[in-house]
Amino acid sequence: MADGYTHILLAVDFSPATEPTARRALDLARLYGARLSLVHVVEYLPVAMDSELMLPPMAGVEEQLMENARRQLAKLAERLGIADAPRHVELGSTKLEILRLSEAERVDLIVVGSHGRHGLARMLGSTASAVLHGAHCDVLAVRAAV
After folding, report:
1. What is the DSSP letter of 53?
2. Structural domain total, the chain
3. CB 3.0–4.6 Å: which of 15, 50, 141, 146 could bond 128 by disulfide?
4. Could you read off the pLDDT of 81-106 as tens digits, one per residue?
């Protein structure tokens, strides 16, 4: 990228990889004078309608998860000294929501943590790998030493 980055999206999952990944994104934002936005995706809760065992209604559970994620994202932003940075909490597929938001917000770098288990996912992490292959912009997978 000739002129550097202008808008960086930090995707976090609140795992132990979050802090080092966030620090790397913050360093890059400062280096390039770029805006830094944060995102966390709450995955849809699966409800099997065809099973004999009926699960109790999930009403309110996703909303509680979303509110908890908003609080955690606010705390992370505060720890990083960027409490005023845009924060997004989305509901859906992690990969799809990160990609959708990155395009909607005209991001030119996505920063994700990497802590996968096997195959290409072992090298990058399944979310990092999925984002890398679907992104319209650069992706930095920060290796977690956890």
Report:
1. S
2. 1
3. 141
4. 999 999 999 999 999 999 999 999 99
Q: Can you give the CATH number for the domain in which 37 is found?
A: 3.40.50.620
Burial class (CB in 10 A: 0-12, 13-18, 19+), 124: buried
Do 113 and 17 contact (CB within 8 A), yes or no? yes
Tracing tokens 């090298």 back to the chain, one arrives at 123
pLDDT tens column, 40-71: 999 876 655 565 555 555 558 888 999 999 99
Instruction: Determine, yes or no, domain membership for 85.
Output: yes
Burial 44-70 (b: 16+ CB within 10 A, else e): eeeeeeeeeeeeeeeeeeeeeeeeebe
Q: What would the two tokens of residue 96 be?
A: 């799809």
Prediction pTM value: 0.82
